Amino acid sequence: MTDEEIVALFDRCSNRDRWGADDELGTLNYITDAKRREAAALVRHGRTVSIGRDLSTMADRLNTDPLRHRMLFDAVSPVSALDSIELASHGFALTHLDAITHVYWRGEAYNGQRAEDLLSPGGLRSGSVYAQREGIVTRGVLLDVAGARGVPYLSPGEAVTAEDLTAAEKRSGTTLTSGDAVFVHVGLERREAEQGGVEDPSVRAGLDASCLPWLHDRQVAVYSGDCVEQIPFPSAAVPLPLHQIGLVAMGLVLLDCPRITDLVTACAELGTAEFLLSVAPLRIPGGTGSPVNPICLF
């Protein structure tokens, strides 16, 4: 796609005013009570799978702003153990939810708000992760792009296209419906395991901009997986299309940086690509994001 075609996606995929001028939930509006009941009915085995990353106090090429964990002195003979933690809410080393006004394009955020009006010393004035405090409970669907291509993993910098998502949806045996959470699998963790190191975060397989209309038309509530947009993305105008078009135009809730190998394994063992997803963000007024430990139930 040309830069002009990518920029046109801001209008093509816009949810501006769809749920009112004061909306702070974005695509979470697609998740209805009926959708939650439908998702809960998927639990037949009682099996749970955590897809959160372990938090680490050690800095590395991914964990550039690591967890700060301090044990607190209480007494010579304490009656309990106490500690304190501090962590950054974003980055490749932390499984987290993005607030829908976390990213901007040309000074604009979701629903036509101006970044300068949103930002304050006390946090985001609208669209913060606090709006997601009731949690996310919906149907999750695994879209195994690597499996649909017949490869163990995609190469660094490779693009996932809308055609790839369609092929993975067909392979899944299910059809996406409004309010679903999608998990795209490109085999990042297997590639890292086989090559014996953490993949360079500056060159990674990920979504092409053509995937945004695909997600928009299917009314996807949450995007997640072992990839974000293709990195580096070949556009000077929109270098982060999943985040910039997804958040700014669509209000698409992003569940970034899960570890999904165990999820892929569970789906294969149980012969399904659908499950109940439960995600509970911390109640952080004004927060730009929240660390989470998402649970998938089968």
Which properties best describe this structure?
single chain; 298 residues; alpha/beta; Glucose Oxidase, domain 1; 2 domains; nine-stranded mixed sheet; two-stranded antiparallel ribbon; 9 helices; 24% helix; 18% strand; globular
The helix-strand sequence is: HHEEEEHEHEHEHEHEHEHEEE
CATH class (first level) name of the largest domain: Alpha Beta
Shape: globular
Radius of gyration: 19 Å
| % residues in beta strands | 15-25%
Task: Please give the count of helices.
Answer: 9
CATH superfamily of the largest domain: Putative cyclase
Helix content: 10-25%
Total domain count: 2
Class from secondary-structure proportions: alpha/beta
Low-confidence stretches: none
CATH names the topology of the largest domain as Glucose Oxidase, domain 1
What is the CATH architecture descriptor of the largest domain?
3-Layer(bba) Sandwich
Cα distance, first to last residue?
A: 39 Å
| Strand numbers in spatial order across the main sheet | 1-13-11-5-7-9-10-4-12
What does this structure look like?
By secondary structure, the chain is of the alpha/beta class. It has 2 domains: 254 residues, Glucose Oxidase, domain 1 (3-Layer(bba) Sandwich); 39 residues, no CATH class. 24% of the residues lie in helices and 18% in strands. The strands form 3 sheets. It has a 9-stranded mixed beta sheet, sandwiched between helices. It has a two-stranded antiparallel sheet with strand order 2-3. Helix 8 links the parallel strand 9 and strand 10. The longest helix is centred in the middle third of the chain and has 11 residues. It starts with a helix and ends with a strand. 45% of the residues are buried.
